[in-house]
Amino acid sequence: MAVLGNLLPRLVFLLLLFVSSRAKVVTIDVQEAKNLIQAGYIYLDVRTVEEFVKGHVDAAKIINIPYLLGAPKSRVKNQDFLKDVSSACNKEDPLIVGCQIGVRSLNASIDLLADGFKNVKNMEGGYVEWVRNNFPVNTSVVVKEEL
Ligand SMILES: *[C@@H]1O[C@H](CO)[C@@H](O)[C@H](O)[C@H]1NC(C)=O
Ligand SMILES: *[C@@H]1O[C@H](CO)[C@@H](O)[C@H](O)[C@H]1NC(C)=O
């Protein structure tokens, strides 16, 4: 009992630490995301470049940095993700992280918070949910010259 009495506060502490580190990911719906974009948040689209150019959230400040790379069924984590976000944004910048349906953006948000980004919000439902709400999109394809 004495051992448990010693251990228990530590376990509770570790549990709280775990819960609070997970709970830091704030998830918002597309309506709130739209309001925050209008208020000046940067929209960080973590889908692939191919997905992005087909159509994306219409935001004044928008950045596309893929969280995963490759074809849909063989995607691998983009090892430069945090480095690339860090060169494009400051740790204090207000960011909304969005993807296609909200899976990649959640993982990306977890990684960004762990890397010290302070103002990260994960957009639930992703671009699909945004489109379902008839919110403004930009589908103008930018044709890049092949190198
Ligand atoms: C998200 O993270 C979990 C846990 O690390 C992992 O199992 C899963 O494959 C990741 N999914 C994506 C889309 O990155
Ligand atoms: C649409 O998005 C492209 C990048 O994909 C950008 O170059 C262009 O300026 C955007 N158009 C508008 C009207 O925001």
From TrEMBL:
GO terms for molecular function: catalytic activity. SMART domains: RHOD (SM00450). Residues 37-139 form the Rhodanese domain. Keywords: Signal. InterPro entries: Rhodanese-like_dom, Rhodanese-like_dom_sf, STR17/STR18/HARC1-like. It comes from Cicer arietinum. It holds the Pfam family Rhodanese. The gene is LOC101505401. Residues 1-23 form the signal peptide. This is Thiosulfate sulfurtransferase 18-like isoform X1. It comes from the Eukaryota.
